[in-house]
Amino acid sequence: MVEISLCLIVKDEEKVLKRCIDSMKGCYDELIIVDTGSTDKTVKIAKSLGARVEHFKWIDDFSAARNYSFSFATKSWIMWVDADDILYEGDAIKFKQNVEQLIKSNPDMIGVNCPYIYSHESTGTGEIPNFKYHRLRIIKKDSGYWVGRIHEYIKIDNSKTINDDRINFHHFREGNKGTMNTARNLRILKKVVNEASEEELPRYLFYYGKECMYNNLYDEAIKSFLKYIPLSNWIPEKHRAMYELAVCYDFQKDRPNAIKYALKAIEIDENYVDPYILLGRLAYNDKRWKDAIKWMTAATLTSPARVLFFDYIPFQTYVPYDYMSIAYWNLKQYSEGYKCILKCLQYRPNEERYLYNKKEFEKMLNIKV
Q: Which of 14, 72, 97, 146 could disulfide-link to 40, CB 3.0 to 4.6 Å?
């Protein structure tokens, strides 16, 4: 039987910590919680949950805090989550069983990557995934360590890690934490970009650009992405930087550069859906209906890249069909538009706008329901 240490770093998480740990019961044998300066009841709650509680003086370094939490692990495998993460009911036991199966069939394995559903949207029938990427969620003890003062990751021999998509970890942020975290991240990144080593700089430039975007600092974001691109050799991240550049230029109403960098993103890797959606939306906004249909159709034909990076799930499901349904309507191609609106309803069956548009298409096609 595999024994697992579950490690968390926390600060002021009294509203979500119990929810998190309760959802993880069954997948860990040891619970370690490192507090980085809580002023609420977080520490008291952690102790009530049976955790070993340690304290770490916050130094604007996430890796240092996470490595500190790992240092107390006594089990053969170490798992990590954040306090606002959960597993759905029944998944904790399944996760541990999956890890045990993987170890038996892959004796050299030292880590498992799992899907991380970072945000969700409601269709009226429950929460469905919205934004997804993968994280290295569990590692063999002493096989890796955290690096990066912010947007940290585990440095490990990736040739000995395995991707397992059977169990999703879910993130449900509490209240205004998002705004607080973005301001904190921007503050730290401003500092580390100026202090980074040559090896660290590309990653920090990329994430500094993203944080600037979140704060509507588009000029600063563009500068950061343009500095990043010639320094990077990692295709998935470089593709994303091209796409984010296109988004920044779009926000600035710089249509030529928005199109330029969306096309560059496609040149780097044609299997990411995002730039096709952007090009389709730009054509749609110009009422170039045929071009909008061309790009949105291309979006539906992409094969999601098999890499551990960002996936915005609506772009891969209903969004392109939404745009195409209206473009076909304007071209008076009602039969094709009707097919598209039915696709939208497969993913969002209670969306009032889609239900209304469905009726309008049925009137034009003399379909009696």
A: 14
